[in-house]
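Dear H.,

Thanks for agreeing to be a second pair of eyes. The structure we're designing against is below in token form, covering all 220 positions.
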């Protein structure tokens, strides 16, 4: 049974508007490990260990499925990565084999850990657009780096590859700072409130935030 299968259509590539990846932006990286996680509902997500200018970074939780088994909207981003990696077959489908169990040293302690690795992406050079997202959970500030888009190392987008159009136009548009450096604030947060909460947390204090509490993120 194939791990992943998707048909490439016009909708698939429809465009929407330091050394560490710490803020919103577009970064040239090499994917070292693309590992699959499956939650208690059977929903799959992918973590990417990437090398950025010699430093290891982890981009967590690109979701393929929702908990009810339907495709998550981020599955289209994964389709784009597959197109960039030249994994579309003659039937215009993306069909990936089941992941391979590999042992890698991960985390600060470099603990040997068994991971389910999609080997098709190992050592693949890409550009990745990530976005800072701030939210609240039980009045505690949470932040994550969410993958927005992938581009081929030469700047080609998935739509440009599929449609045979000029390479780099979408990347040039997306690289406008007002797009690529934007930050998402959820749960009533603002830039000012985030700065206040960060200061409070760094000093060991807690600051109540009057905002709705989101449901637990199963992929955090």
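And this is the sequence the design step returned. I haven't edited it by hand at all.
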């Amino acid at each position: 049974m194939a791990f992943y299968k998707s048909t490439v259509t016009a909708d698939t590539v429809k465009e929407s508007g330091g050394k560490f990846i710490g803020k919103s932006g577009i970064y040239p990286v090499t994917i070292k490990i693309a590992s699959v996680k499956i939650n208690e509902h059977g929903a799959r997500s992918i973590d990417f260990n990437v090398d950025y200018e010699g430093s290891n970074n982890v981009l967590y939780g690109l979701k393929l499925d929702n908990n009810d088994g339907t495709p998550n909207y981020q599955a289209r981003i994964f389709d784009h990565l597959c197109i960039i990696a030249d994994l579309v077959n003659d039937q215009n489908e993306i069909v990936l084999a089941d992941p391979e169990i590999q042992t890698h040293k991960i985390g600060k302690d470099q603990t040997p850990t068994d991971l389910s690795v999609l080997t098709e992406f190992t050592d693949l050079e890409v550009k990745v657009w990530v976005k800072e997202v701030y939210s609240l959970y039980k009045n505690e500030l949470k932040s994550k780096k969410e993958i927005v888009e992938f581009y081929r190392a030469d700047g080609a987008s998935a739509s440009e590859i599929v449609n045979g159009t000029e390479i780099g136009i979408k990347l040039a548009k997306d690289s406008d700072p007002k797009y690529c450096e934007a930050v998402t604030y959820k749960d009533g947060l603002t830039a000012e409130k985030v700065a206040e909460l960060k200061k409070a947390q760094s000093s060991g204090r807690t600051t109540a935030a009057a905002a709705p509490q989101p449901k637990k993120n199963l992929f955090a």
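Two observations from my side: The mean pLDDT is 89. The radius of gyration is 18 Å.

Warmly,
E.
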